[in-house]
Amino acid sequence: MPKISEEAKNERVQIILDHAFKLFSRKGYSNTTMDDIVKASGISKGGIYTYFRGKQEIFIAIAENRFSLRRKMVEELQEDLSSIEKIKNYLNWILSWVSDEKNSLQIKFTTEFWSVSSRDKDLMKVSEARYERFSKGLKGILIEGVERGEFKEDLDIDAMVYLILASTDSIGFMTGVMGIKADKKVCENLISMICNHLIK
Fold first, then answer.
1. Distances in Å between the alpha carbon of 102 and those of 25, 43, 53, 96?
2. What is the distance between the alpha carbons of residues 135 and 40, in angstroms, rounded to a whole number?
3. Which of 6, 95, 104, 161 would staple 187 via disulfide (CB 3.0–4.6 Å)?
4. What is the rounded (10 degree) CA torsion for 140, 195, 85, 177?
5. What is the per-residue DSSP string for 120-177?
6. In which domain, by residue range, is 24 found?
7. 82 & 155 share domain
8. What is the pLDDT of residues 144-199, one digit of tens each?
């Protein structure tokens, strides 16, 4: 049997993830079966099990792919920017992203991931690890701001990280799941509230 190239393997994995992502987002995790993924992707069940041990592993792989985009954005913030500019850029980027209807499927997937994780101990550990990894980048910007003298010396950094992530994710839920879009004024007010609290 001829060996499949690394590029072809990666393409097949991406096909599986893309189709499973749409199924999980539209039907939910519990209502999506491996047979559904086989049918949608056009890849045999044996072929899918070559790359993934089961539905949960596919679910986690999709979550990691979606999460990496957000983490990458924080990591790529320009070094020469002030800390407050980094926070503003981050908030503008994430609020534009969660307010864009084109991203509603991704938001629905994220909401489904949270929901399923709340009932599954193994997935909850994955969720907690993802939160820790992502909050680390945001925390780094806040610490930098305090050290540079841009932000309050007594700033409660962990509380601010929590509030920033909770508020932006909530706007994503309101937009992507409930269909209640945050307008420009809502986003501007949130950014203003956060930045005003950070600075001296």
1. 13, 27, 31, 11
2. 35
3. 95
4. 80
5. -HHHHHHHHHHHHHHHHHHHHHHHHHHHTTSB-TT--HHHHHHHHHHHHHHHHHHHHT
6. 1-52
7. yes
8. 999 999 999 999 999 999 999 999 989 988 888 888 888 889 999 999 999 999 98
- 91 and 22 in a single domain? The answer is no
| SS3 label, residue 7 | helix
Count of beta carbons in the 10 Å neighbourhood of residue 168: 21
pTM: 0.79
Residues 6+ apart with CB under 8 A from 13: 51
How many whole angstroms from its chain centre is CA 42?
Answer: 27
* Per-residue pLDDT at 32: 96
Distance, in Å, from the CA atom of 98 to the CA atom of 179, rounded to the nearest integer, reads 11
pLDDT at 1: 44
